[in-house]
Amino acid sequence: MPNDTPRSQPRRRDHSTLQLPCGTCSRWFKTPSGRTRHRISAHPVMPVPPQDNHQPPIPQEPQPPNLAQPSRDEGHHVDMDIHEGHHGADYHDINMDEHPRQPSPQADVHTEFVGCGDHLYRNYHMGLSGKPCDINGAFLPPGAPPPPPEDIPNDDWTPFRNRSEFETAEFLYKQNQMPAGQIDRLLDLWASTLAKHNDEPPFADHRDLYNVIDSSPFGDVPWQHFTVAYDGERLADEDRPWMDDQYEVWFRDPREVVRNMLANPTYANEIDYRPYREYSTEGDKRQWKDFMSGDWAWDQADEIAKDPSTLGSTFVPVILGSDKTTVSVGTGNNEYYPLYASIGNIHNNVRRAHRNGVAVIGFLAMPKTTQEHAEEPSFRRFRRQLFHSSLSKILDPLKPGMSTPEVTRFGDGHYRRVIYGLGPYIADYEEQVLLACIVRNWCPKYLILFYMCVANRDNLDEDALPCTREYTEALIEEALSDDLWDDFGIVAQLVPFTNDFPRADIFQMISPDILHQLVKGAFKDHLVTWVKKYLRLTHRKRKAQKIMDDIDRRIAAVASFSGLRRFPQGRGFKQWTGDDSKALMKVYLPAIKGHVPQDVVRTFRALLDFCYLVRRNIITEDTLLEIDDALSRFHRYREIFKATGVVLHFSLPRQHSLTHYVRNIRLFAAPNGLCSSITENKHIEAVKEPWRRSSRYNALGQILLTNQRLDKLAAARVNFTRRGMLTGTCLSAAVGVLEGKKRAQSIPALADELNIPSLSDLLSRFLFQQLHPDDPRDTSDVPLAECPLYLNKISVFNSASSRFYAPSDLSGIGGMRVEHIRACPSWRNEHSRNDCVFINMDSSLPSMRGLEVARVCAFVSFQYRGEVYPCAVIRWFDKVGDAADEDTGMWIVRPGYRANNSPEHAVIHLDAIYRAAHLIPVYGMEFLPQELKFYHSYDAFQTYYVNKYVDHHAFEIAF
């Protein structure tokens, strides 16, 4: 008995149902799960946030990194026979009170200026420095040239006989996607025209065409497959069809696919060979752009560099993505969805523009069963584990190269030693739940560096503890499955595929997703839906419908703009695409102002600001502050939806994900390079189009073959381009030009056409300004007698193109974008179209303070004294106020008038036009007449918003 304890013995604890000590405090617990919950709530261990030293270290002589062997967990190997109930935990002795791994200290760095001048510099990683080597892996001295390319004659088009044959194959199979029967008919018609010349077409028939493509030695990564079957425990009375089925998974060797990407010469100037941190010399402020500029790549390199055999290698992060879809109903019980791969070394614009920077590497199985068994937990676990086990098997060829460097050739001709690693995973929310092995409606995103947030699904925005792989494994070790499901949102029976690979943690790998989290989620599914619900709650049904109809008319009344999708019937359609939502974002804000409270308008503005900021191609430290500010405003103003009863809470996983963007940007750099729109667009090329051109019978095999042929054609084009064989075009003869409406050929005729009587005077003053650029007088003060008079022939054009740097938008090589500005009397034979433009007035002033807005009446070119003058006839718009509208964040302008109330026109040089501008009317609170059309927009209103949301470049200049 306790009172009889001998004094020579230590006092023992009284008997209690509480048998498990906390280990940190004096409390005891009955169950491991109770103790775990107590430890996490009472003794939280918050990870130390990444230290971002804005003041970079002074460059030093390179020092070798820590050469100690890394203590790496090899992970749990998942066999392809699925066993229920096995969670694969390898961490039996984890102390929950230990701090999670902190960011690696910054190693010695190599500093270089980049770009023009000395405005930017980079600190490059010294351990994994991407040194060129020979084919045997021996490093070359600095400046050594790459080995000469294989000596192939420039007229060798193997397997094609000539350029015409290659371009015909590419046109018929890739660009036109012509069916086999039509190919045969075209070749027959072609042969009939050549018979009299004793010549023949390039291919005999479609089979000959296909055989030639198949024989191409370029880009040949064949498809393979493996079969998966259930091999878990079965009860005596269990008879489940899915347990007896076999599931085929098709894949291509990801290692060979990655090596082909690294060897692509078109990426030679758009690839990073080593992690880096980029800074502006003005204040030493850091900025994030392409993937290798993020902290994740740097910290991975720190970890890898602990092994001395990896020093000097190139770290190659493999970026994955999957997009579930049904590809066939004709392959029995098997359906698939594609798995994509890219590499983190290529620049974001390459991955977004595809250019073969994203490749399909697998089609995963989608098990089906009877309705009776479809909702059983055992089947659902099997289906989810099959996904992870399939990924583990497909990615297995990469595993040796994750610890031992291998030599491969790069697009610049050099060989380098490479170390692979699993990088971010591009996925929508449903895929993220599957990847993280969590319960739906829980947060699978990161809270701080390398961690996943375990935020309770009832209040996702409350402060939550981070979760690492170690924490998860410890929870699985100690807690009961039901407690893990209910209290932590963890599915304990599943083994993530990342357990089979070094340095891979699924909680680190899930990337931000602009498309589904912001565009389709927070904007379309949340705010747009909430506005509709708000109107129904605050107005009678008929009045609410009338307001929504007017919002639709306002959207439909928006003027045309290059690249802007129109909504002729408003936004009232059922099937939304990502492009529909993106287009609606650009025009929705002015359409609702006047029909909803001010806080609703400001909620939309805050979200749009957030979306456009995180979508930037380059994100600076100042941008991060702007993102935080936009998020704070969004959280503040969205409360109106709760106050009016539209929503009860904001615990929405996709909306909650906004809180993770700043830390994700520090990890992975600009999020536009990891958006699911990349895989969804690739999905069209890899699945939808091959499906449409298939016979629909056993379609998967045809889809695989089509992808392989497309890859061969793409690889052949890269090879022929590298050898300089595809300059110019096949035919040098000019193609016909479509006839348009004949325009005026003299100034008086153009003055009549445009109804600008003073056009001749305006042109004379323009010429005076061009001939006397140093004259201090305003041209309007110069007497017309001193201005030259031009009466000769002019050329009038319906459009002009503007080329400017806009890397945040879809753009070409180097981030340059070309847009067309229209000024034509008959657009598509229906109505006139005269676009608006930004005029650069003072480049030393920021944003709209240095820009003016005008509408183009005509583009004109003429020759005077041997000099050609390209110019534009414009009508000026005046700014309303000296700042942007506080609610919408957009400047307001109105058509300009002279003192005599005549429209204010001018003639300007074409070089003064910066780019196209898009205006949306200030609708006010009035309802639009039903007969108003979008092409009336620039003529029917008195004031207009300068739409900074029309694209990302406009957002960056029109603030």
The overall pLDDT, averaged over residues, is 81
Low-confidence stretches: 1-18, 44-107, 328-334, 446-452, 732-741
- Binned strand content: 15-25%
Alpha-beta content class: alpha+beta
Q: What's the N-to-C terminus distance?
A: 80 Å
- Strand runs, count: 29
State the share of residues found in helices, binned by percent: 25-40%
Number of helical regions: 27
Q: Please give the radius of gyration in angstroms.
A: 32 Å
| Shape verdict | globular
What about the largest sheet?
Answer: 9 strands, antiparallel
Describe the protein.
The chain is α+β, with helices and mostly antiparallel strands and 959 residues long. The protein is built from 27 helices and 29 strands. Strands 18, 22, 23, 24, 25, 26, 27, 28 and 29 form a nine-stranded antiparallel sheet that branches. Strand 3 (109-114) and strand 4 (120-125) form a beta hairpin. The termini are far apart.
